Amino acid sequence: MKGKIIPLKDNLNNTIKEVIKSLLEKGCFDAILVPNRVPSGESFTYLLINDQDFLESCTPLPPIMPIQGARALRNLTRRGKTSLKVLCVMRPCEIRAAIELSKLRQVELENISFMSIDCPGALVTKDYIDKPKDSDILYEEVLDQWTSEHLRPTCNTCVNFSYENTPSDIHIGIIGQQKNHILLLPISDKGNALLGKIDIQCSDEISSWQTNVKEILQKKTDQRNNSFSELQNKTAGAENLDNLFSDCINCHNCMRVCPICYCRQCFFESSDEVRIEAENYFIKAQNKGGIKFPANTILFHLGRISHMALSCVNCGACEDGCPMDVPVAQIFSYIGDTVQKMFDYIPGKDRNEPIPILTYKEDELHEYEDSKGQ
Amino acid sequence: MVKIGLYLCECGPNIAEAINLDKIAEQIKKDNKVAGIEQHKLLCSEDGKKFLVESIKKNEFERIVIAACSPKQHETTFMEVMSSSDLNPYMFQLVNIREQCAWMTPDKEAATSKALRSIRAAINRVRHHDALQQKEIDCNPDVIVVGGGITGIEAALRTAQKNRKVYLIEEQKLGGRLREYGLLFPTMQPAQEFLNKKITEVKNTGQIRVFENSKVKEILGFFGNFVATIENKDREEIEVNAGSVILAIGANPFIPTGLAKYGYGTFDDVYTAAEFEKMTSSNNITTKSGNPPKSVAIIHCVGRKRLGYCSKVCCTNSMKIARYIKEKLNGVKVIQFYKNLCLPDKKYDEFYKKTKEKGIEFLRFSDIEVTKEANQMMLKYKQENDNEDALPVDMVVLSTGLIPNPKTEDFAQMLNIPVDEYGFFKEEHMKLGPISTITEGVFIAGCAQGPHSINDSMVQAGAAAGKILSSLVPGRRLQLETKTSYVSETMCIGCGVCVDICAYGALTIDESKRISVVNEVLCRGCGNCASACPSGAARHRHFTTKQITQEMIEILK
User: Fold this and answer.
1) Residue A37 Cα distances to A46, A64, A72, A92, A139, angstroms
2) Pick from A12, B14, B321, B453: most CB atoms within 10 A?
3) Which stretches of B265-369 are DSSP H helices?
4) CA gap B242, B142 in Å, rounded
5) pTM exceeding the 0.80 threshold for the entire prediction
């Protein structure tokens, strides 16, 4: 792979902005969907920009991810493709979620291009909005270390933080560039054509970046394995699962911030059909020695896991949005990983690979068959 | 409160002796959820059915639970009783307390306890049943037969009758592969005589419209209402309507070009059996040099390993060819090189014996190679006992198997039917539905489904015809599946999971509304969509979440 080396201007975000600006000037895009600092300065949101002046306030790699980009893109294209050419600047997990949504007809990818950035992770949103200025400085440190206790837990165990497994068009490499420059890497043919329009010679000198990506991948893989072996014990059996979700207040915020949860209305909110009469709760309470109210919170999470596990991109939005600090993203990440491995599927990796639930193979999954069954 | 009636069937001693029905009646009475409980010796008997109708009417029950045998045995019986009692047949639930309780265990108490649970569940369920209405549509009794080979001809002849038109569509000329045949196995009658008789019959049957040199461009629709676009010999597009489709597109002979050791395409006078058959139909057997061959070797099972299946017709066909050569050419030596002989019929063994008696040699080999030495073709072969030998021959006939018609995939996609691992159409079920496909109203016959003899192909054509004649009767309306699925417009978000998961092509996305819709004519009510839909938008009319939840509450209590 060849990349273009762009010297760093005053800071990372401004350098990326310059690249976006030149693409806009060359008429490559009609609009940009990019994270933007809100006027109060305390948070970030996605902004659809087609005026270069607005580009000034955008932050291509914000320290937090209060809105998962796939949700923003879904908002834009849910009723059909855009007629304008749009460049989406997103973290790799946001792009992968958008790809999953396109397979579920919730996002139209026609006329959409993606620019991904090596992602150090996102800080916990609640912590950030308490102390935005301190957190901004903290994030500078994260960009050096690529791991931190202040990040979302699933960011520390993320193995898809760079270009691999993310079908972006242009990837921006920042790992280990010693704040001197960034790399522009074409991932797709489209990306190649786009970068051709930027007037900088290509360089083969990306090996140091590749080595650094590998190093960090190893670090994160180790952290991931440790986390999963802990979760394996924590999630085993009904009782443990009950304990894990015992703090849940049934607010369903995890579902609202999840990029993949795409139902018009959640079955658990819409359906009166699963609610049962008081006398049946008494019987349940008698059998179990007591039941927790609101009831069926665990059923909600299990339902969501069964729907999301194959497409979960480990973005951590659910846990970030949880007011009770239920480790919901970590659980989803662990179960998602197990299920995805079962089907040899990496969500969002390939635009043309159907979600396994949509394919039927007569001959598969024999290892899960009942050994006594026929 | 809705009046539910519960009927307990003793099923002679079957249930009465294994389950304490009195205890069940007593408990259910205590629950106070039914308006009446009755017990009978045998509810499915004429006497039992009469009792049911009278009792239901007298007690003015509105919903009925019957605890008896498996729904597979008597669900329809009791649904008819419902209709006779002026109740909607779906306001009824059958509880299987015979196979699933009485016959499960000798422990009477355990059986009684499970039966009680199941009956309570059914009572809870039937309360939420909806009165489903039987739907009917007009249907077209006409038939489209794709492929004008012997299978298609036979299918057309068997379906053509008064009030029923048949459209027989053939890409070339009527007769298909049989047009290239000399003799028929095992009668050794001239094939063309037989075929011409059949073709004359087709032409004399006023009900069959033949399209020769024509192509099927598209078939749309569903059982009872298909529309086919045909491109005729003048390249005009013609639309025809029919209620069912028979696919009789046949198979092709395997061409062994890739198997170098047989010398096919390398040496003159190496032919496939199909090519040789053409020579026999023109009655002129000569080598390239113009002389009749003095020795002919017929090699069996060519490509058998490559194809992965036995084509079932090549062994007998090889013997037929051998007999033809022997009779036609004086003093000719004919040797059959075989590995295994496939003679699966009562008459075939006798044919084999007679073939041997006529002086045709059978030689079992384990490996073979066709070579040429100084203008003489040589067969180098390894015998069963591993002895190596060589034989000079003038002509080699390669008996190859049958492979799917390359058009199979196109029709499979067009009509939403699967193909098997070899590329032939896949039948609905090997034993229960060997002629039908998962698309209702589309049938497969002859070699389109896999290698078959002419006889078997014609039998299949007759079977497909029988299916059509009995299900699409002119003037009668078609009864549709009542227990279908539907999609809630307010809940559906149009993700299309149900569309991809439906095996019957019954679900599509309405692009203007961006939600999915069920075609109730195609829906068979399997419920796959309802279980796959994450939103609860796809629903089954007779397995609603409420019905299942309420049933499960009682089961798990």
Assistant:
1) 9, 10, 15, 20, 15
2) B321
3) 273-281, 304-307, 314-328, 348-357
4) 4
5) no
Give the span between the Cα atoms of B75 and A101, in whole angstroms: 43
Which segments of A83-235 does DSSP mark as H helices, in order?
92-103, 125-130, 132-145, 153-156, 189-196, 207-235
Bridge-based pairing of strands B376-383 and B361-373 is: antiparallel
Reading the block at residue B236, the tokens are 């005009």
**Average pLDDT across chain A, whole number:** 91
Q: Which residues of B touch A (CB under 8 A)?
A: 490-497, 500-501, 509, 514, 532, 534-537, 544-546, 549, 553, 557
Q: How would you classify the pairing of strands B485-487 and B92-96? A: unpaired
Q: How far is A177 from A197, CA to CA, in rounded Å?
A: 24
Lookup: tokens for A39: 């006027």
Q: Complex ipTM, two decimals? A: 0.89
Least CA distance to A354: which residue of chain B? Answer: B500
User: Is the N-terminal amide bond of B186 cis, ω within 30° of 0?
Assistant: yes
Distance CA B100, CA B111 (A): 9
**C-alpha dist (Å) from residue B502 to B414, B438, B508, B527, B528:** 15, 11, 10, 9, 7
- Give me the phi and psi of B499, to 5 degrees please: -60, -45
Locus of tokens 């994450």: B534
Nearest to A105 among B496, B501, B553 (CB): B496
**Cα end-to-end distance, chain A, whole Å:** 51
pLDDT at A371 over 70: no
C-alpha B191/C-alpha B179 separation (Å) is 8
Residues of chain A contacting B491 with CB distance shorter than 8 Å: 263-265, 270
**In one letter, which amino acid is B138?**
D
The model's confidence at residue A15, banded by pLDDT at 50, 70 and 90, is very high
3-state secondary structure of B440: coil
A33 and A86 in contact (C-beta within 8 Å)? yes
- The phi and psi torsions of A309 (rounded to 5 degrees) equal -55, -40
In the block, residue with structure tokens 């050096």 = A144
Contact at 8 Å (CB) between B338 and B301? Answer: yes
In order of A47, A142, A175, A258, A319, the CA distances from A136 in angstroms are 20, 10, 18, 25, 21
Per DSSP, the three-state class of A156 is helix
Is A99 strand, coil or helix? helix
A304/chain B closest Cα distance in angstroms: 9
Contact B395, B413 (CB under 8 A): no
Q: What are phi and psi of A35, to 5 degrees?
A: -65, 145
Using one digit for the tens of pLDDT, what is the confidence trace for A322-365? 999 999 999 999 999 999 999 999 999 999 999 998 888 777 88
The edge-to-edge listing of strands for the beta sheet with B208-211 is B208-211, B166-169, B143-146, B244-247, B442-444
Supply the DSSP symbol for B101. I
Token representation of residue B27: 């408990």
Residue with tokens 């339902």: A303
